[in-house]
Write a structure and sequence with these properties.
Layout (H helix, E strand, L loop, with lengths): L3 E2 H4 L5 E9 L5 E3 L1 E2 L13 E5 L2 E10 L7 E5 L11 E6 L1 H20 L4 E6 L3 E7 L7 H12 L5 E7 H6 L17 E7 L3 E4 L14 E8 L4 E8 L1
Parallel strand pairs: 1-4
Antiparallel strand pairs: 2-3, 2-8, 5-6, 5-8, 6-7, 9-10, 10-15, 11-12, 12-13, 14-15
Helix pairs in contact: 2-3
């Protein structure tokens, strides 16, 4: 049975009541529902705690099950106690870490608008992140890019989501900016993240509700990674 992904409907949910479905052979905990984002699309899996009664179980990261991508597995720190199937639980995020990742993830979407080139890779950290671009002749200036990026942030545009079918995405390939990570298809529908008046692209990650929540951001480094590849790193101030 697929895990109910509560973060898809509300990225601001910090905790939820759940039931332990199983503990797999590697000690990973599967709940019937979760607010924890599972690693994917360059965004790390959430960490936090699962409480079963008075017993806290520290969660180091969250991933999708290797055999069934519809199931989310919460991976405990080493030496943590494990719950019994059927137990009532409360899943609580490390919110400070999640929110920094949300802010950076949305800022990276804006960066892909400042630099409208094919994206060859990317990663999201805690308060920092990067995108790799296929740019034949760079000549990029950190201060200029920072000013353009901050101008988009300061528009305080609404960030929302909508869904399209696999067929609609196939008919609109320009929506896909990433060359290295393809949007998940096969379930019949694909989630689009829309930054009002600025950007629209497939994404399964968590985002802030308005660009103004990103706050102050800057381009920290621009690196040459091959003849046509430029890595642009950004960070929250």
């Amino acid at each position: 049975m697929p895990t109910d992904l509560l973060f898809r409907a509300d990225a601001y949910g910090r905790e939820c009541a759940a039931t332990v479905v199983t503990v797999n052979e590697r000690g990973g905990i599967v709940l019937d529902r979760t607010v924890f984002y599972a690693q994917g699309g360059g965004q790390p899996g959430d960490k936090g705690v699962i409480e079963v009664g008075a017993q806290p179980i520290m969660i180091a990261t969250t991933v999708y099950d290797q055999a069934d991508k519809g199931i989310v597995v919460h991976v405990p720190d080493e030496g943590q106690p494990l719950p019994s199937p059927g137990a009532a639980a409360t899943a609580k995020l490390d919110w400070d870490t999640r929110f920094k990742r949300m802010r950076i993830h949305t800022a990276l979407h804006l960066l892909s608008c400042v630099l409208p080139f094919p994206v060859t890779g990317g990663a999201i950290g805690e308060g920092e992140g990067r995108l790799d671009f296929d740019i034949p002749d760079a000549g990029l200036d950190k201060e200029e890019l920072t000013a353009k990026l901050q101008a988009l942030v300061d528009r305080d545009a609404k960030v929302g989501q909508r869904w399209i079918t696999d067929e609609e995405l196939a008919a609109n390939p320009s929506l896909v900016k990433t060359m290295s990570v393809k949007p998940p298809m096969g379930s019949g529908k694909v989630r689009l993240v829309e930054i009002e008046g600025i950007d629209l692209q497939p994404c399964g990650g968590t985002h802030v509700a308005r660009t103004g929540e990103i706050g102050q951001v800057r381009v920290t480094t621009i690196e040459k990674k091959g003849k046509q590849n430029r890595r642009v790193r950004i960070g929250l101030i």
